[in-house]
Specification:
Layout (H helix, E strand, L loop, with lengths): L6 E5 L6 E9 L5 E8 L8 E8 L2 E2 L3 E4 L1 H8 L5 E10 L2 E9 L7 E8 L10 E2 L17 E2 L5 E7 L5 E7 L5 E7 L5 E8 L5 E7 L5 E2 L1 E5 L7 E3 L5 E2 L5 E4 L5 E6 L6 E7 L7 E2 L4 E2 L7 E8 L5 E7 L3 E7 L1 H4 L5
Antiparallel strand pairs: 1-28, 2-3, 3-4, 4-5, 4-6, 7-8, 8-9, 9-10, 11-12, 12-13, 13-14, 15-16, 16-18, 17-20, 18-19, 21-22, 22-23, 23-24, 23-25, 26-27, 27-28
Length: 333
């Protein structure tokens, strides 16, 4: 990459006083779509999933694409609050998965799925997915899926009820659940995010579910996601917070996450050897106030090669950064 270093940031338009858990996808026409949840505070009754698009450097006004009321009406099940969304573009379809809770906390979550065929302008009524037997609770999502070699979709998920562990959902192209396997790990893990090296080999990194200061947890698969095996923790900190992982088209791996003590730093690390070794890249955000929060990063690489990062900014909004690989190498924009 001989291009000069490039890095730019902008806040997404405000949808509500509190915002969290952004997700990104590149639309068929090259626009970048973002979704997140926002309301008066996390878990409030007025929280909705919001959607906006980036076109020629300008973000559109956000629109609510899932609310408690619309989800209740479509699924015929009581919805008390909404949570993490995940976007995924495949062909002319834009998929949205999002979390809803009827009773209790996030451990009582259900997973909902909706599809747009027009770049996010209109969405099908959400369907509640049957991800577990009996009461069908405690399946949550945070990270984007991967296209599988056979045309199916692999969606990272996680379970919080009693135990905390990662899961891998295998979906049909239309979003139907075909299979679910556990990402086996001895520790409490959450929010896996997966990068594939080829049709069979993949790495998943996970949030350390505590207790105490932790490190980024990892599991690997060598059979296309049919089974997952615990791997050594990465030598990178994780204060029980969401992480992002991306395999760049250059072959490098990129992680976004927080520092050891809290969520007041948003850091990047790069690997040149498929995740065996990691080195720091430029810092995205840092505030000496331990209560400052730059969290829940998400990463994609667009068709033009630029890398897009979105994250929660002080719980007040969603911030978007776009940069190239030259900037990762320490270049000054």
């Amino acid at each position: 990459d001989t291009a000069p270093a490039y890095f730019a940031t902008a806040m997404l338009p405000t949808a509500a006083p509190s915002a969290h858990a952004a997700t990104l996808a590149e639309l068929p026409d090259g626009r970048i779509g973002a979704a997140w949840f926002a309301g008066t505070r996390e878990g409030a009754a007025d929280v909705a999933v919001w959607f906006a698009t980036l076109d020629h450097g300008q973000w559109s006004a956000p629109r609510a694409i899932a609310t408690r009321e619309s989800t209740t009406a479509a699924t015929l099940g009581f919805v008390r609050k909404l949570g993490n969304p995940v976007l995924y573009a495949a062909g002319d379809r834009l998929h949205l998965w999002f979390v809803s809770v009827g009773l209790g906390g996030w451990a009582g979550s259900s997973l909902n799925h909706s599809i747009s065929a027009d770049g996010g302008d209109n969405w099908s009524p959400p369907m509640r997915l049957q991800t577990s037997p009996f009461i069908n609770i405690s399946t949550l999502v945070r990270a984007p899926p991967l296209a599988l070699a056979n045309g199916e979709i692999g969606l990272p998920a996680y379970h919080e009820f009693i135990a905390k562990h990662g899961e891998w959902l295998r979906l049909a192209a239309d979003g139907r659940i075909l299979d679910k396997v556990r990402m086996v790990h001895a520790g409490r893990t959450l929010q896996p995010v997966v990068a594939a090296f080829d049709a069979r080999h993949a790495l998943a990194i996970q949030r350390d579910g505590g207790p105490g200061p932790g490190q980024i947890r990892s599991v690997t698969s060598s059979d296309g996601g049919a089974t997952w095996t615990a791997a050594p923790d990465l030598p990178l900190p994780n204060p029980n917070a969401s992480v992002a992982l991306l395999r760049l088209r250059s072959g490098r791996m990129l992680i976004a996450g927080n520092g050891a003590s809290n969520r007041n730093q948003l850091l990047l690390w790069v690997s040149d050897d498929e995740g065996k070794n990691w080195r720091p890249a430029p810092t995205v955000e840092s505030d000496p106030d331990a209560l400052a929060e730059f969290s829940y990063p998400t990463l994609i690489q667009a068709r033009d090669g630029r890398i897009h990062l979105a994250y929660t900014w002080r719980r007040q909004g969603i911030k978007h950064a776009v940069f190239n690989e030259a900037w990762l190498e320490g270049g000054t924009p």
